Amino acid sequence: MINARSIAALVAPVVLCGLLAQGASAQGLADVYKIREGVFGSHIEYHGVTIPNGEEVVLADLTGPGKVTYWYFTDDTNGKLYPGLVLKVFWDDEPAPSIDVPLADFFGAMGGHTIDYQSAPLKIEHLCYMCYLPMPFARRARLVLANDGDRDYSQSVAYGIDRETGAQYAREKSRLHCAWRRSNPVKDGLHTILDVKGRGHYVGNILQVHTRFAG
Fold it and tell me: How many domains does the chain fold into?
């Protein structure tokens, strides 16, 4: 379990190590009229969410085969996400989460602060945290929000998850994996960002550095 209370450490990067399917890019506007094999669906919720310290809630439990195409999250903390929130995503009834990172770090919110930016896979816009990374799954996708902080979490929350279902995803073996690493202090001036084996695509990472150096 990640101890999110120690996020303000010397180095706290999030690594997005995605095993993404070839040709999984978003459909262009010029091709919107074309009929595709998959069936589109959306899961949207807006209500108060309370997560006691050490507990978790299920945001969505999706049945496959399918692919998450987009999802967003926002709450009324007004500019800084509670640092105790941890995102866990389980693919196909796996016992361990393939994504297990602080929620703010997943979206690239440095120090948990909402700073607007835009990129192809992720963006933050006016307190709304958005992810466009394609996430295929064969049987099931379970998105969980855990509280690993030092107090209870209770806020008004809105989130939505878009997905596409279709038989073609039953044969797709790519899965998105995200890891979180902290070095405090950095040993010998080195910090390991990623150490994995196997075939896949490296999507990218964010890196946060906190230093006591005053010079």
Answer: 1
